[in-house]
TrEMBL record:
SUPFAM superfamilies: Periplasmic binding protein-like II (SSF53850), Winged helix' DNA-binding domain (SSF46785). Pfam families: HTH_1, LysR_substrate. Keywords: DNA-binding, Transcription, Transcription regulation. This is LysR family transcriptional regulator. Residues 4-61 form the HTH lysR-type domain. GO terms for molecular function: DNA-binding transcription factor activity; transcription cis-regulatory region binding. InterPro entries: LysR_HTH_N (IPR000847), LysR_subst-bd (IPR005119), WH-like_DNA-bd_sf (IPR036388), WH_DNA-bd_sf (IPR036390). Belongs to the LysR transcriptional regulatory family. It comes from the Bacteria. PANTHER family: HTH-TYPE TRANSCRIPTIONAL REGULATOR, LYSR FAMILY TRANSCRIPTIONAL REGULATOR.
Amino acid sequence: MFKFSLKQIAVFDAVASHESVSAAAKKLSMTQSAVSMSLSQLESVLDRPLFNRQGNRLVLSHWGHWLRPRAKRLLQDARQIEFGLHEQHLISGDLTLCTSQTAAKHLVPALISKIDNDFPEMRIDLMIENTENVIEALLNYDCDLGIIEGRNTDSRLQQEHWLDDDLVVIASPNHPFAQYKQVTLAQLEQAKWVLREPGAGTRRIFDGAIHGLIDNIKVWKEYESIRVIKSLVANGSYLGCVPYLDILPELESNQLVVLPTPQLNMQREISFIWRNDSGESPLRECLLSEARRLTRGRSFKPRKDGTPA
């Protein structure tokens, strides 16, 4: 017979998520004393300390980190059993998706709409962060699935390629470089730039593309918002580097132009990532399957002249 209960595992998971007994109690609609007692009983049964107290926070111990992914899988399996026994939709429940800005703006809304229509019992909670923070959110168990730009090098995470989306150098049609058939590295080095902030997937790829080619680039401003970067470039003398998907409306209205920069390779991947220890997840597999269908046969790359492919 098992010496612990699913309720105790759920309490452990809630305290781990919030690092607080009071916050966990609120989430579980329990009293603080009941949460404390349940957690104490679990630690006693397992004969291991699961948390260390740091000020007002309860931080996972070594054993707590070991238990966390196993607790997540156990609770997930229990929910699927409950849905099946009650003849509900097996694709049912909440999935937290943390995504980078480009995917959030151009791809995720259609994906969520498709899932809402075909799987009404599945709910997607959305977080929008830069790539670095998406990875951190997954490692901290703040989300179930992530979408990032570029490559992930953390061995604790699994990655699946979704689609390719090139980065392009943009300028105002009135910028002197807009008339050139080719912009050289020396000209790019002399320009003033507005770019994404360090940690953003777009910035990582841009920095990697110019590494070893341009020694000192003049970064005038750094912003989290692609919209701000596009506006500054369209109305000023700056250059910017943004995903091609983000500038299609401005290209059509002639507010921005793509500069020909053949010496820069700025191809990138947009990928899904999740924790290796998260086990099987019907919700995750459902979302991945629908995402593959959504983009099958579509191109997200510009032609050499910058027009849509």
